[in-house]
Protein backbone atom coordinates (compact mmCIF):
# COMPACT_ATOMS: atom_id res chain seq x y z
CA UNK A 1 0.00 0.00 0.00
CA UNK A 2 1.53 3.37 -0.99
CA UNK A 3 2.24 6.02 1.59
CA UNK A 4 -0.28 8.78 2.17
CA UNK A 5 0.76 11.95 0.28
CA UNK A 6 2.12 14.66 2.55
CA UNK A 7 -0.50 17.10 3.78
CA UNK A 8 -0.80 19.52 6.73
CA UNK A 9 -1.59 17.86 10.04
CA UNK A 10 -4.85 18.78 11.76
CA UNK A 11 -4.48 19.43 15.48
CA UNK A 12 -6.55 16.32 16.30
CA UNK A 13 -4.20 14.15 14.24
CA UNK A 14 -1.23 15.85 15.92
CA UNK A 15 -2.59 14.78 19.31
CA UNK A 16 -3.02 11.22 18.01
CA UNK A 17 0.63 11.27 16.96
CA UNK A 18 1.98 12.76 20.21
CA UNK A 19 0.05 10.65 22.74
CA UNK A 20 1.80 7.33 21.91
CA UNK A 21 5.40 8.55 22.47
CA UNK A 22 4.28 10.31 25.66
CA UNK A 23 2.71 7.19 27.15
CA UNK A 24 5.43 4.86 25.79
CA UNK A 25 8.12 7.01 27.42
CA UNK A 26 6.30 6.41 30.69
CA UNK A 27 6.13 2.70 29.87
CA UNK A 28 9.93 2.46 29.61
CA UNK A 29 10.30 4.19 32.98
CA UNK A 30 7.60 2.04 34.57
CA UNK A 31 8.91 -1.21 33.08
CA UNK A 32 12.39 -0.48 34.37
CA UNK A 33 11.03 0.48 37.82
CA UNK A 34 9.29 -2.86 38.47
CA UNK A 35 11.66 -5.14 36.55
CA UNK A 36 12.79 -6.66 39.85
CA UNK A 37 9.25 -7.35 41.08
CA UNK A 38 7.54 -8.60 37.92
CA UNK A 39 9.41 -10.78 35.37
CA UNK A 40 9.02 -9.97 31.64
CA UNK A 41 6.39 -12.52 30.54
CA UNK A 42 4.28 -11.97 33.67
CA UNK A 43 4.45 -8.20 33.11
CA UNK A 44 3.31 -8.60 29.50
CA UNK A 45 0.52 -10.99 30.49
CA UNK A 46 -0.74 -8.69 33.27
CA UNK A 47 -0.46 -5.66 31.01
CA UNK A 48 -2.59 -7.11 28.23
CA UNK A 49 -5.05 -8.69 30.64
CA UNK A 50 -5.73 -5.23 32.09
CA UNK A 51 -5.91 -3.77 28.57
CA UNK A 52 -8.39 -6.46 27.49
CA UNK A 53 -10.66 -5.75 30.47
CA UNK A 54 -10.55 -2.03 29.71
CA UNK A 55 -11.40 -2.65 26.07
CA UNK A 56 -14.35 -5.00 26.64
CA UNK A 57 -17.08 -2.42 27.47
CA UNK A 58 -16.68 -0.44 24.24
CA UNK A 59 -14.84 -2.88 21.96
CA UNK A 60 -16.97 -6.01 22.29
CA UNK A 61 -19.79 -4.73 20.07
CA UNK A 62 -17.55 -3.69 17.12
CA UNK A 63 -15.52 -6.87 17.64
CA UNK A 64 -18.62 -9.01 17.14
CA UNK A 65 -19.83 -6.84 14.26
CA UNK A 66 -16.54 -7.02 12.33
CA UNK A 67 -15.59 -10.60 13.13
CA UNK A 68 -16.47 -11.77 9.62
CA UNK A 69 -13.97 -9.25 8.18
CA UNK A 70 -11.17 -10.56 10.41
CA UNK A 71 -10.96 -13.72 8.32
CA UNK A 72 -10.31 -11.67 5.19
CA UNK A 73 -7.29 -10.08 6.87
CA UNK A 74 -6.43 -12.96 9.20
CA UNK A 75 -2.72 -12.99 8.38
CA UNK A 76 -2.34 -9.25 8.91
CA UNK A 77 -4.26 -9.44 12.18
CA UNK A 78 -2.24 -12.42 13.37
CA UNK A 79 0.99 -10.70 12.31
CA UNK A 80 0.16 -7.44 14.10
CA UNK A 81 -0.94 -9.32 17.23
CA UNK A 82 2.35 -11.22 17.34
CA UNK A 83 4.68 -8.33 16.46
CA UNK A 84 3.07 -5.24 18.00
CA UNK A 85 1.23 -6.68 21.00
CA UNK A 86 2.90 -9.90 22.17
CA UNK A 87 6.52 -9.88 20.98
CA UNK A 88 7.42 -6.18 21.05
CA UNK A 89 6.52 -5.50 24.67
CA UNK A 90 7.83 -8.84 25.91
CA UNK A 91 11.20 -8.23 24.27
CA UNK A 92 11.40 -4.66 25.60
CA UNK A 93 10.74 -5.79 29.18
CA UNK A 94 13.19 -8.63 28.77
CA UNK A 95 15.87 -6.36 27.34
CA UNK A 96 15.44 -3.75 30.10
CA UNK A 97 16.76 -6.32 32.58
CA UNK A 98 20.21 -6.24 31.00
CA UNK A 99 20.65 -2.85 29.32
CA UNK A 100 20.67 0.82 30.25
CA UNK A 101 17.89 3.33 29.60
CA UNK A 102 20.26 5.32 27.35
CA UNK A 103 20.91 2.34 25.09
CA UNK A 104 17.20 1.51 25.03
CA UNK A 105 16.28 5.02 23.89
CA UNK A 106 18.94 5.02 21.17
CA UNK A 107 17.75 1.66 19.84
CA UNK A 108 14.12 2.82 20.00
CA UNK A 109 15.06 5.72 17.74
CA UNK A 110 15.87 3.34 14.89
CA UNK A 111 12.17 2.46 14.46
CA UNK A 112 11.42 5.21 11.89
CA UNK A 113 14.44 4.13 9.84
CA UNK A 114 13.40 0.47 10.01
CA UNK A 115 9.89 1.43 8.91
CA UNK A 116 11.34 3.36 5.96
CA UNK A 117 13.77 0.55 5.01
CA UNK A 118 11.16 -2.23 5.23
CA UNK A 119 8.62 -0.05 3.43
CA UNK A 120 11.07 0.44 0.58
CA UNK A 121 12.17 -3.22 0.41
CA UNK A 122 8.78 -4.90 0.71
CA UNK A 123 6.21 -2.27 -0.34
CA UNK A 124 8.18 -0.04 -2.73
CA UNK A 125 7.46 2.99 -0.56
CA UNK A 126 9.71 5.89 -1.54
CA UNK A 127 10.91 8.48 0.97
CA UNK A 128 10.55 12.13 0.04
CA UNK A 129 13.60 14.31 0.57
CA UNK A 130 11.76 16.08 3.40
CA UNK A 131 11.03 12.79 5.16
CA UNK A 132 14.64 11.61 4.90
CA UNK A 133 15.98 14.94 6.13
CA UNK A 134 13.44 14.98 8.94
CA UNK A 135 14.43 11.48 10.08
CA UNK A 136 18.12 12.41 10.19
CA UNK A 137 17.54 15.74 11.99
CA UNK A 138 15.25 14.20 14.62
CA UNK A 139 17.76 11.36 15.18
CA UNK A 140 20.44 13.99 15.88
CA UNK A 141 18.12 15.49 18.47
CA UNK A 142 17.63 12.08 20.10
CA UNK A 143 21.39 11.50 20.29
CA UNK A 144 21.87 14.99 21.75
CA UNK A 145 19.42 14.22 24.56
CA UNK A 146 20.60 10.72 25.46
CA UNK A 147 24.33 11.64 25.34
CA UNK A 148 23.81 14.81 27.40
CA UNK A 149 25.43 16.78 24.60
CA UNK A 150 28.76 14.94 24.98
CA UNK A 151 30.12 13.07 21.96
CA UNK A 152 32.34 10.98 24.21
CA UNK A 153 29.25 9.30 25.71
CA UNK A 154 28.25 8.04 22.27
CA UNK A 155 31.77 6.88 21.44
CA UNK A 156 32.10 4.87 24.66
CA UNK A 157 28.73 3.12 24.57
CA UNK A 158 28.95 -0.62 25.12
CA UNK A 159 26.17 -2.84 23.83
CA UNK A 160 25.07 -5.90 25.78
CA UNK A 161 22.70 -8.84 25.33
CA UNK A 162 19.74 -6.66 26.24
CA UNK A 163 20.51 -4.29 23.38
CA UNK A 164 20.21 -7.10 20.84
CA UNK A 165 16.88 -8.11 22.39
CA UNK A 166 15.52 -4.55 22.28
CA UNK A 167 16.72 -4.06 18.70
CA UNK A 168 14.78 -7.19 17.74
CA UNK A 169 11.74 -5.62 19.41
CA UNK A 170 12.21 -2.54 17.22
CA UNK A 171 12.23 -4.75 14.12
CA UNK A 172 8.91 -6.25 15.22
CA UNK A 173 7.42 -2.80 15.82
CA UNK A 174 8.46 -1.62 12.36
CA UNK A 175 6.71 -4.64 10.84
CA UNK A 176 3.64 -3.94 12.97
CA UNK A 177 3.55 -0.34 11.73
CA UNK A 178 3.59 -1.46 8.09
CA UNK A 179 1.12 -4.31 8.50
CA UNK A 180 -1.47 -2.38 10.52
CA UNK A 181 -1.72 0.13 7.65
CA UNK A 182 -2.92 -2.66 5.36
CA UNK A 183 -5.95 -3.38 7.57
CA UNK A 184 -8.73 -1.14 6.19
CA UNK A 185 -9.90 1.81 8.26
CA UNK A 186 -13.46 0.50 7.89
CA UNK A 187 -12.60 -2.19 10.45
CA UNK A 188 -13.17 -0.61 13.87
CA UNK A 189 -9.82 -0.11 15.66
CA UNK A 190 -11.07 -0.85 19.17
CA UNK A 191 -12.65 -4.14 18.09
CA UNK A 192 -9.50 -4.98 16.12
CA UNK A 193 -7.33 -4.29 19.13
CA UNK A 194 -9.49 -6.54 21.32
CA UNK A 195 -8.93 -9.31 18.79
CA UNK A 196 -5.18 -8.67 18.77
CA UNK A 197 -5.02 -8.64 22.58
CA UNK A 198 -6.86 -11.95 22.83
CA UNK A 199 -4.44 -13.54 20.36
CA UNK A 200 -1.48 -12.14 22.30
CA UNK A 201 -2.82 -13.48 25.61
CA UNK A 202 -3.16 -16.95 24.12
CA UNK A 203 0.47 -16.77 22.98
CA UNK A 204 1.77 -15.38 26.28
CA UNK A 205 -0.02 -17.82 28.60
CA UNK A 206 2.19 -20.90 27.91
CA UNK A 207 5.29 -18.69 28.12
CA UNK A 208 4.12 -17.43 31.51
CA UNK A 209 3.59 -20.98 32.79
CA UNK A 210 7.16 -21.76 31.74
CA UNK A 211 8.55 -18.57 33.31
CA UNK A 212 6.67 -19.12 36.60
CA UNK A 213 8.73 -22.23 37.23
CA UNK A 214 11.82 -20.11 37.89
CA UNK A 215 10.60 -16.52 38.51
CA UNK A 216 7.99 -15.25 40.98
CA UNK A 217 5.75 -12.18 40.78
CA UNK A 218 5.87 -9.83 43.79
CA UNK A 219 2.81 -7.58 44.15
CA UNK A 220 3.22 -6.72 47.83
CA UNK A 221 4.09 -3.05 47.21
CA UNK A 222 1.23 -0.58 46.45
CA UNK A 223 3.32 1.35 43.90
CA UNK A 224 3.73 -1.86 41.88
CA UNK A 225 -0.04 -2.12 41.47
CA UNK A 226 -0.31 1.53 40.40
CA UNK A 227 2.46 1.05 37.85
CA UNK A 228 0.74 -2.06 36.46
CA UNK A 229 -2.52 -0.10 36.16
CA UNK A 230 -0.71 2.64 34.22
CA UNK A 231 1.03 0.14 31.94
CA UNK A 232 -2.22 -1.71 31.26
CA UNK A 233 -4.23 1.41 30.33
CA UNK A 234 -2.17 4.28 28.92
CA UNK A 235 0.68 2.79 26.84
CA UNK A 236 -1.43 -0.26 25.98
CA UNK A 237 -4.99 0.81 25.16
CA UNK A 238 -4.84 4.56 24.57
CA UNK A 239 -1.43 4.74 22.90
CA UNK A 240 -1.91 1.70 20.66
CA UNK A 241 -5.36 2.82 19.47
CA UNK A 242 -4.04 6.32 18.78
CA UNK A 243 -0.99 5.01 16.91
CA UNK A 244 -3.00 2.55 14.84
CA UNK A 245 -5.43 5.28 13.86
CA UNK A 246 -2.63 7.74 13.08
CA UNK A 247 -0.85 5.24 10.81
CA UNK A 248 -4.10 4.75 8.92
CA UNK A 249 -4.55 8.51 8.51
CA UNK A 250 -1.04 9.77 7.69
CA UNK A 251 1.01 6.72 6.72
CA UNK A 252 3.65 4.59 8.39
CA UNK A 253 6.71 6.83 7.90
CA UNK A 254 5.04 10.06 9.00
CA UNK A 255 3.56 8.38 12.06
CA UNK A 256 6.72 6.52 13.09
CA UNK A 257 8.93 9.65 13.05
CA UNK A 258 6.95 10.93 16.06
CA UNK A 259 8.50 8.09 18.07
CA UNK A 260 11.61 10.30 18.20
CA UNK A 261 9.69 12.47 20.69
CA UNK A 262 10.01 9.73 23.34
CA UNK A 263 13.30 10.96 24.90
CA UNK A 264 11.87 14.47 25.14
CA UNK A 265 8.80 13.24 26.98
CA UNK A 266 11.05 11.03 29.10
CA UNK A 267 13.08 14.09 30.13
CA UNK A 268 9.94 16.07 30.91
CA UNK A 269 8.47 13.23 32.98
CA UNK A 270 11.73 12.84 34.89
CA UNK A 271 11.70 16.57 35.66
CA UNK A 272 8.06 16.66 36.77
CA UNK A 273 7.86 13.33 38.61
CA UNK A 274 11.40 12.83 39.88
CA UNK A 275 12.46 16.45 40.36
CA UNK A 276 15.43 16.13 37.98
CA UNK A 277 16.91 19.31 36.50
CA UNK A 278 16.06 20.24 32.91
CA UNK A 279 19.35 20.85 31.07
CA UNK A 280 20.36 22.88 28.00
CA UNK A 281 20.96 19.77 25.90
CA UNK A 282 17.40 18.59 26.59
CA UNK A 283 15.98 21.92 25.42
CA UNK A 284 18.20 21.97 22.32
CA UNK A 285 17.40 18.31 21.66
CA UNK A 286 13.69 19.07 21.93
CA UNK A 287 13.98 21.84 19.33
CA UNK A 288 16.01 19.58 17.03
CA UNK A 289 13.63 16.63 17.33
CA UNK A 290 10.53 18.68 16.64
CA UNK A 291 12.28 20.42 13.75
CA UNK A 292 12.94 16.97 12.29
CA UNK A 293 9.32 15.96 12.84
CA UNK A 294 8.17 19.14 11.09
CA UNK A 295 10.49 18.48 8.15
CA UNK A 296 9.31 14.86 7.86
CA UNK A 297 5.71 16.08 7.72
CA UNK A 298 6.41 19.00 5.38
CA UNK A 299 4.13 19.31 2.35
CA UNK A 300 7.17 19.71 0.09
CA UNK A 301 7.69 16.54 -1.94
CA UNK A 302 10.64 15.22 -3.86
CA UNK A 303 10.07 14.93 -7.57
CA UNK A 304 11.64 11.47 -7.43
CA UNK A 305 9.15 10.13 -4.90
CA UNK A 306 6.26 7.87 -5.84
CA UNK A 307 3.05 7.19 -3.96
UniProtKB/TrEMBL annotation:
Keyword Chloroplast assigned: no
SUPFAM superfamilies: Multidrug resistance efflux transporter EmrE (SSF103481)
Presence of keyword Transcription regulation: no
Boundaries of every EamA domain copy: 13-147, 162-297
Topology in the lipid bilayer: Multi-pass membrane protein
Transmembrane segments annotated in the record for this chain: 45-64, 76-96, 102-123, 130-147, 153-179, 191-210, 225-243, 255-274, 280-297
Family designation: Belongs to the EamA transporter family.
Protein name as it appears in the record: DMT family transporter
Native organism: Methylophilus luteus
